[in-house]
Amino acid sequence: MSTSNPSPLPQSPQVERRPQPVPPPGPPGHARKPSLGLTAGLCLVASLATALAILALANRGVDALSGSGVGTQARLATAAGGELLTTLRVGGTIETLKFAAIRVPQMRGPRDAGRADLTIMSLAPAGSIVKAGAVVAEFELKWLVDHIDDVESSVVRRQSNLKKHIADVQILKETERQARVTAKAEYQKALLDLKTAEVRSQIEAEVLKNVSEEARATWGQLEEEGRIKEVVHDASIRGQELIVREEELHVGRHVRDLKRLQVKAPIPGMVVHETLFGRGGQFSQATEGDQIYPGALFMRIVDVSQMVVNASVNQVDAQSIRIGDEAVVELDAYPGEQFRGRVLEIGAMASSGSAGSRFSRGQPGAFIKHIPMRIMVEDHDERILPDLSASVDVHAANRPEGVLVPREALRSADGEGPSFVYVRSDGEFLRREVRVQDVSDTEALIATGLRAGEEILLSGLPVSAEGHQ
Fold first, then answer.
1. Confidence of residue 58 (pLDDT cuts 50, 70, 90)
2. Which of 19, 118, 159, 305 is 20 to 30 A from residue 322's alpha carbon, by CA?
């Protein structure tokens, strides 16, 4: 068996590839330079971008300062003429200028009343508005009314006893007077009988003499006893009168106590309940049915038509405040609300700060002195209530006039040298020294070196270009 080779398969045509041109190698150690056309195109694009950026920055008030290499957003302000308003902020609490403290009535009657505390029977609600003379609290009355009835009965009985005693003394005085009259008559009769002794025997004459002397002694003794008994009788009557007067005063004190148990408002205003230390060891406000001790402060009647802010200011800052200065009052309870105010009072003596006292040694605030002050709230608003915390901006009455600029525009080379500002002129910022007359928290008053209407730089000047002119 013979084998034969198969026919060869047809082959695909061969494509001839041309070699790519290879650029000649450059000299060793040098990079390849771009073409001249590419370089010119890139320069043209960069120039156009720079021109557009400069135009945009100029329209937006941005100045690119030479030497810095960085463009910064410049904030400008215009110097203006006006008054420098100096403001001092203090904090305090809203109080009333006029109020009346209401205390539990103290019983003036004798101790036999037997009351160490009183029970509240009725109480005006907190926040209510009352008129002068209105009953705002009433304490237990029944026991005192009964006691007054008992004492009044005792007074009537004492008065009857006094009248009876006076009558008895008058009878006794008359009896004693009759005895003295009789003794005197006996003495006068004995004297008449003694005149007959000349015609009588010696014994009878001696007897008449003895009888007259005895009658004279008896009459003299009764007269002396009468003067002493007169004093005794007057003293006994006076003693009974004093007993009656004591009972009458007893009733009078209880009657006044009865009036005190009905507490009336001495002035018109709002009822404010005070916090008391209760029997359970907790602080709370008094309510109906509570027993509280006499003399305890349980209520105030406040006149809400005149409200003040009780505050304190550092003794250094107090030198710039005067009575009558305007103020703006803000309440922490109502953010954003402002009320007109005026400085009403400034204390004459300073006191130690809250953190220290005269016994403290080296504690913070031990040597910080504060002066109390009051600011009258001139606006009337029902939201202004006692015990609200408040902040007050006091505007000093002394307001010098001149050129005003924002305080942040002031600069200094080393922080201690003369102040200067950057003034914008013909698209450039020129450094100019100024003399500062006074400053507030936000503004500065320029005495010389700047005119009203000139534009000054607030921020945006790099530190490396602070000498740029």
1. very low
2. 305
> To the nearest whole percent, how much of the chain has pLDDT over 90?
20
Burial class (CB in 10 A: 0-12, 13-18, 19+), 229: middle
Least confident of 202-211, 355-364, 384-393: 355-364
Q: Distance between CA 86 and CA 438 in Å, rounded?
A: 9
Give the single-character DSSP code of 349: S
| Gap between the Cα atoms of 104 and 284, Å rounded | 16
- Model pLDDT, residue 377: 94
**CA gap 237, 177 in Å, rounded:** 18
DSSP code, position 440: -
As a dihedral over the C-alpha atoms of residue 421, residue 424, residue 428, residue 432, rounded to 10 degrees, the angle is -30
Identify any residues that bridge with 99 across adjacent strands, giving them in sequence order: 302
Scored b (16 or more CB within 10 A) or e, 145-159 reads eebbeebbebbeebb
Please state, in angstroms and as integers, the Cα–Cα distance from residue 146 to each residue in 139, 158, 337, following that order.
15, 19, 56
Structure tokens belonging to residue 56? 């945009």
Q: Is 153 helix (H, G, I), strand (E, B) or coil?
A: helix
Distance from C-alpha of 201 to C-alpha of 209, rounded to nearest angstrom = 12
- CA–CA separation, 20 and 221 (whole Å): 177
CA triple 210-213-215, angle to 5 deg: 110
CA distance 15 to 18: 10
d(CA 262, CA 265): 10
C-beta separation of 329 from 392 below 8 A: yes
Task: Give the rounded distance of the alpha carbon of 308 from its chain centre.
Answer: 8
Higher pLDDT, 442 or 123: 123
25 CB neighbour count, 10 Å cutoff: 7
Burial class (CB in 10 A: 0-12, 13-18, 19+), 166: middle
Indicate the average pLDDT of the chain. 78
pTM over 0.85: no
Residue with tokens 């026919």: 7
Measured CA to CA, the distance from residue 197 to residue 212 in angstroms comes to 12
